[in-house]
Amino acid sequence: MSNFNLKASKYDSASASQAELAECLFGLSLDYLPDVPPVLLDLGCGTGHLSLDLANLFPKKLDCLDISKEMLEICKKKLQAHFSNVKWRLFENDAENFEPDIKYDAIYCSSAIQWFNDIPSFLAKAKKWLNPNGILCIGALGEKTLCELRSAYIEATGRKLETEAKFFSADKLIAMHKKAGFELQDSAECIYTQGFANSVAALKTLGNMGVTSTGKKSLNRVEAQKLKDALLKTKNENFAVNFSWELIAMIFASI
User: pTM for the full model?
Assistant: First the structure.
């Protein structure tokens, strides 16, 4: 949480892939929302990538939750500036420990599930938070995410890159949700490529997104330079360094 608090002011400029996933998830969900103004929950709302789109639906109620106080403050300022006439509430909380006082027509969780400690437990709770015919909208990062960085890290250090984030295949996500009593209604997948002028800019951007290594052994100067050199192997005609993000958007219904 402290890392996201520290990076909150720089998150919007760094998180193009997360914004892309939020837009995809929002668009995919529109056909599954009720005809009347819905009651919505944005879990892991961050600085409001998805919250603003949801507010633009002029929902009956919109709840936005994030563990980072600083990110919530940015989200709040955006909502105040553009949607002062929408009934929204902000909650500073962990999505896995949240206990809502209402039920929702749609629960959105974009670019957040990779940080959860106990996904099955979260899904069991989310099922209880939904109204009849409600939907659970999940935006996740697939297994191919940051494949270039992970390959370069092994080349530079001989070790696998360890992070707190968990990346899943679409099949794994579907299986987890099915076991929790959800049925897939719709999905979309794509590879989003993020380009950078150099290795330093690429690594700095990841840091501003909160993506950091959790390895017990930090990089020494030689390894750090080897990592920068290895990342240059991802060069194309447009950028010196490229990172891939596998974006998976899924709409689930309770069964």
Answer: 0.93
